[in-house]
Design a protein that fits this description.
Number of domains: 1
Number of strands: 2
Shape: globular
Strand content: under 5%
Structural class: mainly alpha
Number of helices: 3
Largest sheet: 2 strands, antiparallel
Strand order of the largest sheet: 1-2
Length: about 90
């Protein structure tokens, strides 16, 4: 219940906490979410249930997106990406 109206401020808050912990802005997160963060299993895939229109399934789905975030794991994945030599 709530959909994007509920989750957008939650992600904004999580991003603010991640930025605060890093000491700098993490930047545009979409490439990290669909790449590095997903590979680090920092999102809990939701594979059952429905929103009465779309079923949850393995991987991305219209009902649950990429799943629920694990904030600490996302922070560590972003930290690893930003600390890699370029």
């Amino acid at each position: 219940m709530g959909g994007t109206s509920a989750v957008a401020p939650l992600w904004a808050g999580l991003t603010a906490l991640i930025n605060e912990e890093l000491g700098y802005r993490a930047g545009f997160l979409n490439p990290l979410l669909y790449g590095t963060v997903l590979q680090h299993k920092a999102l809990n895939d939701i594979v059952t249930g429905t929103n009465r229109g779309y079923p949850a399934k393995q991987g991305w789905d219209a009902c649950t997106g990429l799943g629920s975030p694990n904030g600490q794991a996302i922070l560590e994945a972003i930290r690893q990406v930003h600390e890699q030599p370029k």
